[in-house]
Amino acid sequence: MSPLWKETTAISKEIAKEGQIPHTISGWKCVHCNVEVWNRDVSRLAYHLAGDVSVRDVANGFTGIEVCAQVNSDVVSRAKMEIEFKVAKRTRKSSLSAAGQVVASEEGDLRAEHMQQTLTHLESCASGTRTNQLFLRFTKLRNL
Q: pTM of this prediction?
């Protein structure tokens, strides 16, 4: 749990629309400026508390979040660190994913090459009935 939640108060409200089952939604209220946000996403909280519009990442859809003008510099620095941590984590995940795709592709190429060698070997040995049956099974498996 992020330490930034200490800068909020948990809030909830009952939603009852006609023809729907009533349900409760939760959110948070900033202890510095009393803004209410009906979303429990820590990233939205971090952008609010960072107090600087320039740190908002439009790609994440955080354009509608108001920045807190009454927050102190200690909280601002912790919020900015939280944002930097999340961006670094996302970048690391995407680079690992790209590296994983390269490795998987290389492994797939090696498997295909090995399979082709095995197929060639079985074709050359296909004179006996038992070998011929193995060859046919292998060919069926390869085509699945």
A: 0.56
Residue 8 buriedness (CB in 10 A; 0-12 / 13-18 / 19+): buried
Enumerate residues 6+ apart whose C-beta is below 8 A from 2.
42, 45, 46, 82
Check: CB of residue 35 under 8 Å from CB of residue 99: no
Q: What is the pLDDT of residues 19-65, one digit of tens each?
A: 889 999 999 999 999 989 888 888 788 888 887 666 555 665 556 67
Tokens (6 digits) for 136: 């046919």
Please tell me the distance from the alpha carbon of residue 118 to that of residue 122, in angstroms, as a whole number. 6
DSSP state of 66: P
Cα-based torsion angle of the residue sequence 35, 41, 43, 49 in order, rounded to the nearest 10 degrees = 20
In tens, the pLDDT along 75-107 reads 888 888 888 887 777 777 776 666 666 666 666
Q: Which residues contact 134 (CB under 8 A, 6 or more apart)?
A: 122
User: d(Cα 107, Cα 137) in Å, to the nearest integer?
Assistant: 23
Q: How far apart are CA 49 and CA 37, in angstroms?
A: 12
